[in-house]
Design goal:
CATH architecture of the domain at 85-284: Sandwich
Bound molecules: 2-acetamido-2-deoxy-beta-D-glucopyranose
Organism: Acer yangbiense
Radius of gyration: 28 Å
Number of strands: 16
Structural class: alpha+beta
Protein name: procollagen-proline 4-dioxygenase
GO molecular function: iron ion binding; L-ascorbic acid binding; procollagen-proline 4-dioxygenase activity
Keywords: Dioxygenase, Endoplasmic reticulum, Glycoprotein, Iron, Membrane, Metal-binding, Oxidoreductase, Signal-anchor, Transmembrane, Transmembrane helix
Largest sheet: 8 strands, antiparallel
Order of helices and strands: HHHEEHEEEEHEEEEEEEEEE
Subcellular location: Endoplasmic reticulum membrane
Shape: elongated
CATH superfamily of the domain at 85-284: q2cbj1_9rhob like domain
Distance between the termini: 86 Å
Amino acid sequence: MAKPRNSRFPSRKSSSSTTTLMLTALIMFTFVILVLLALGILSMPSGSGGSRKANDLSSIVRNTVETSEGEEDRAEQWVEVISWEPRASVYHNFLSKKECEYLIDLAKPHMQKSTVVDSETGKSKDSRVRTSSGTFLARGRDKIIRDIEKRIADFTFLPAEQGEGLQVLHYEPGQKYEPHYDYFMDEFNTKNGGQRMATVLMYLSDVEEGGETVFPAAKGNISSVSWWNELSECGKKGLSVKPKMGDALLFWSMNPDATLDSSSLHGGCPVIKGNKWSSTKWIRVNEYKI
Ligand SMILES: *[C@@H]1O[C@H](CO)[C@@H](O)[C@H](O)[C@H]1NC(C)=O
């Protein structure tokens, strides 16, 4: 009936060994935490970040940029939503200067007069509405292009396999692309990959005057963009993006319910002064086979 005395009042010896055990465990635990911190597996929350708004895309971009082994020569990157109808945003300094120059050098020897798609036959044809010259660079053709295509996939949340090859375009003074849709109205062009869903338009050069990408059917306050006063007369006829080397414009030709968005009508204003180099990635609703 009487319990052994030892179980209720442990001897001094066993008490001190428990303390030693606990201390040892504590020291080992602290050591492990310190090692994890040193290796960067754990990280301390830093107060400098502050609380960001839930819809602040720039924090997502910064996180992506900080964790990727980026080049040193790239300027600050951030995303600016410029319109909801059409859905469009500008990713500033998406490409480095080196990448822009690389794409231009690669494309230069192969530039051909641009064509448009004939809506009846689905074939390419010469056109007065599009007076630039251009060429396609095969998807995944080299490391630099694969890097860019990966970045486009991260930005759009759409897999690289749904993208067509990059098209590089060159506009000289007077050259332009009249407003048009990127989606197709024919069966022929949607056989591979289905409809075009989104477009990423990268500016590979600055343009002194003109050459804006203009959305004449955009809803909302078109004069609220910070570059409004620098736009050409054509650029002021709609929501416009002024070409800036390295910037990327993403816009959607489809609504979230997969209906076609007629507010995605867009054109390239005539270049007035300077040269415009750009590169386009069209993204389909399904895998685009190459
Ligand atoms: C459009 O935006 C500009 C610049 O932010 C502002 O001055 C102007 O009042 C706005 N117009 C309307 C109709 O809201």
